[in-house]
Amino acid sequence: MTQSQSGMMPALTQQMQDCIDACMDCHNICEEAMSSCMQQGGQAQMQIMRALMDCSETTRMCADMMMRRSPMAGEMCAVCARACDMCAEACMSMPDDEMMMRCAEACRRCAETCRAMAGASM
């Protein structure tokens, strides 16, 4: 972890803050969508539930790693973008469900910011 002369971590860039915010928004919406899926039940939902769980955990971890300036944050952002893409695709399989469409939108937004961060130096 690199530190400035005063011993403090350097401030987050706006790009990092935007990505952290997108990750946390996506995490929260995935959690809501999981709750919605559990209430609806059904075996077909298991694939969607797995995608939601993977995305929820990955986005939380990605935000944590960026906030603490982990040297692995760039790699985590790349993994997070992939998890978000997969989750968005799973949510799109339920086009009549407003919660799933909101989740897919949050996942796409998060994937976009994470792809940008994966290519940026942190």
Automatic annotation (TrEMBL):
Highest taxon, organism lineage: Bacteria
CDD domains associated with the record: DUF326 (cd08026)
A Pfam family this chain is assigned to: Csp
Signal peptide stretch: none
Transmembrane segments: none
Protein name as it appears in the record: Ferredoxin
Species for this entry: Streptomyces corchorusii (Streptomyces chibaensis)
